[in-house]
Design brief:
Elements lengths: L1 H30 L4 H28 L6 H30 L7 H24 L13 H28 L3 H26 L5 H21 L11 H9 L1 H4 L5 E9 L2 H8 L1 H20 L6 E6 L2 E8 L5 H23 L7 E7 L6 H19 L4
Antiparallel strand pairs: 1-3, 1-4, 2-3
Helix pairs in contact: 1-2, 1-7, 2-3, 3-4, 3-5, 3-6, 4-5, 5-6, 6-7, 10-11, 11-12
Length: 389
């Protein structure tokens, strides 16, 4: 009787969790957005649904509804191993796309991401076919080696995902982005721990409920963060810039100087007028990527936002003894060098270059007044080199 009640409760739990994941998956499909991160997220949802489905059959074996034979035990446990590795690897790929780490799209990077899953799946397949006793013992229980292979790839992805997410979260000034990256890093960790608790301590569906709760939490944070993000460049938008600027405790750092840097594309109107707004948008994305790359090399993490049109704002921090004019010059040289490389790589028929203006944000001055001063400095520099806005 206990077996039937256990099976009913377990399958009911899996159906509820699968329904939630399926709704999210169908929502993405109907919405029609096929960005890289969305496709990876949909792969995560699909992998979870498949895992929950197969896990129902395994629960039926445990409860006695399906005969416990060498075939059912070996087959179902192998499929669960494959699907757990897929859940972990697809989530890691999704995390990399959200963090926009450039190496992920390189051939070597893609191979390194998939290698743990490939090794785990292939080794387990060889053993289950030729040496089944290495994974399933005479009592039809999984062996220690099976548990090692079952957890090897997921643990690798959990550790790497956590390290990358926490590192990227540290660089962000946007609190919502920090929360998003934090959840991105701890999601696989909590899911893995709940799975271990379920497998080794209590035969209750902790894994599916924890997965569902964390996915819902991540979706809520994603929707909240999208309000503060510019949809084209994926930088902070003007509203988030103003919210950040009005929080005095956030914009000023102890024992550091704060500078407002205005960034503007040179002769951007000519790009739009000559090549169209699609190419103009392409140029803006390249500028955003150059800004992100430059931010990663700065000693103190800056706050970057798209102010409007082809104008961007950087809130940067320096030590009191640093020469800001030299820093600004090096930053502009680095940005324009990156843009020249991008233009050459993408074979665009135009040049994208930037001019920067700067003003120190002192504690007795307002952000708006400092922004005006930085804009005036930008205009003077553009006039000096003879380029338009």
């Amino acid at each position: 009787m206990f077996g039937k009640l256990y099976l009913f409760f377990y399958i009911e739990s899996m159906v509820v969790c699968s329904a939630v994941f399926l709704i999210l998956l169908l929502h993405d499909i109907i919405r029609g957005e096929r960005s890289e991160s969305t496709m990876h997220f949909d792969n995560v949802l699909a992998a979870h649904i498949m895992y929950f489905t197969v896990d129902c059959f395994w629960a039926a074996v445990i409860s006695g509804a399906i005969p416990r034979t060498a075939f059912t035990v070996s087959f179902l446990n192998y499929v669960l191993l494959v699907l757990l590795s897929l859940i972990a690897s697809t989530w890691f790929e999704f995390a990399l796309s959200v963090m926009d780490l450039q190496w992920r799209s390189e051939k070597k990077g893609r191979l390194m991401v998939q290698l743990p899953t490939i090794l785990s799946v292939v080794i387990s397949f060889v053993l289950i076919i030729f040496y089944p006793s290495a994974l399933i013992d005479d009592q039809l229980e999984t062996t220690t080696l099976y548990m090692v292979l079952f957890l090897a790839a997921p643990v690798f992805y959990v550790v790497c995902g956590f390290i990358y997410s926490m590192r990227e979260a540290y660089k962000k000034e946007n609190v919502l982005k920090q929360k998003l990256l934090f959840v991105l890093g701890i999601y696989p960790l909590t899911v893995l721990l709940s799975g271990i608790v379920q497998a080794l301590i209590l035969k209750l569906p902790f894994f599916c409920f924890n997965s569902m709760i964390m996915i819902i939490l991540f979706n809520l944070l994603t929707m909240e963060s999208q309000i503060s993000v510019d949809p084209l460049t994926k930088l902070n938008n003007r509203g988030e810039l103003m919210r950040f600027a009005l929080q005095g405790s956030s914009i000023h750092k102890e024992r550091l100087k704060t500078y407002v840097i205005m960034v503007d594309a040179n002769d951007f109107k000519k790009i739009n007028d000559t090549y169209g707004h699609v190419e103009g948008d392409r140029a803006l994305v390249m500028i955003a990527n150059a800004l992100k790359r430059a931010a990663g090399s700065m000693d103190k993490p800056p706050f970057i936002a798209r102010f409007g049109g082809d104008e961007f704002v950087i809130i940067a921090y320096t030590d009191p003894d640093d020469d800001m004019s030299e820093i600004l010059s090096n930053l502009m040289e680095s940005l324009n060098s990156s843009l020249a490389d991008m233009c050459a790589k993408n074979k665009v028929p135009y040049k994208v270059a930037l001019t920067l203006g700067c003003a120190e944000l002192k504690r007795d001055n307002t952000f708006q007044d400092t922004l005006v001063q930085a804009d005036e400095d930008l205009y003077k520099r553009k006039k000096r080199i003879g380029v338009g806005r």
